[in-house]
Amino acid sequence: MSIYTAMRSGVSALAANSSAMAVISDNIANLNTVGYKRGLTDFTAMLNSQTGGTTYNAGGVLSSTRRLVDVQGSLEQSRSSTDLAVAGNGFFVVSENNRPLTNGGSVAFTRAGSFSVDAQGFLVNAQGFFLQGWPIQADGSVASSPTSLSTLSPINVADTVSSAEATRTVTLTANLSSTQAQYDPVASANTYVIGDLATGDIAPHFESSIELFDSLGAPRTVAVGFLKTAPNTWQVEIYTRPAGLAPANPGGRVASGEVTFNTSGGISAGGITGSIANPFNIVWDASTGAASQDVQFLLSNSLSQFATASGVTTVVTDGVPPGNLAGLVVEDNGVLTAQFSNGRSRALYQIPLATFLNPNGLLPDRGGVFRNTLASGLYNINEANAAGAGRIESNVLEASNVDLAAEFTSMIVTQRAYSASSKIITTADEMLEELLRIKR
User: Fold this and answer.
1) In Å, how far from its chain's centre is CA 85?
2) Domain boundary residue, one of 268, 288, 317
3) Closest Cα partner for 98 from 129, 52, 70?
4) Tens of pLDDT, residues 11-25
5) How far apart are CA 61 and CA 59, in angstroms?
6) Inter-helix orientation angle 404-439/2-29, to 10°
7) What is the pTM of this model?
8) Is 60 left (phi over 0), alpha (psi -120 to 50) or beta?
């Protein structure tokens, strides 16, 4: 009977509009949820086969919900360097636990990039999902695959430290005064012999102390002493302070030589002789526990002899003490770099992005993640800025793609549609009541 089908059509309309209102309420509730993708309700007419041309059997309406996953939300600045957003296509690969994806991990995909380091050193977002990345080897190589999850591992920075590096080169920029009177062995009753500056038997005309790092990262002091022995000629000795740090020679001397200047104040050709002209070896005392190390003093382009006071302009050395993790930086190609307290940095992981032929076909799951389906197609995992994947931005979060004005408008329309659907039921009920009164 057509009246009954009209009533059932009204019931289906109530159910469909109730579902649409639920989707709208979810959208509004998640207006400030990072990476949230707005839901949309589609209505499909249900048509019954008609038995005759004089009556019509109402079918009603069916609702279905889909996510506008491919619509990007606005990118908003953040204060944390581990807050990440994808500008363009792609999803972060995450897992709901910290096990490798091939050993109990469950792969998921998300745009919610509010990651932080947890108590165990893993990068976890606010929803509790662990970020996956390709480890970067010591030689800078990355083992990656666009279809295999076996090359991925949960990103962990717990044991990230920077080892000490022994000093290998020293560049001393200094001026030795051309007005300095040369050493007079007669007046001093002491002829200069190599090692006298280190032992203190003869006081240098100019001395400068320099800090080096040994193989354990401990700071060690060496001094460079200069003694003018002839016009434009200076004797140079390098020695440790205290002298017992390098006991191989008296006074801790580790290198010596002679520097000759030309009349223009620069070092003459072949003007550096002795062990200071080449890398020399420092053998530290056994009590330090440090290994011996070769050090090169670069003097040929940095020493001068002008008619001004002797002095050091700059000292540049390499080598660093051990360093602890001071911060994390993510570049737009997804490389996660650790910065250490000793000024060094090291690339740890490359964060990939997963892309899909039909991202709107992904299945939403708890925690703002998505699972791939037959409708979405298989994932392709590539580095950022490659193969259609977007770039990764640090100190940025992707906001929800919900448009509040559009949601309130849809809410009004849905509310009116629900009221109209209820009128179908009450009207059909009145018609049935009228039919029953015919018998009376």
Assistant:
1) 12
2) 317
3) 129
4) 888 888 888 999 999
5) 7
6) 160
7) 0.73
8) left
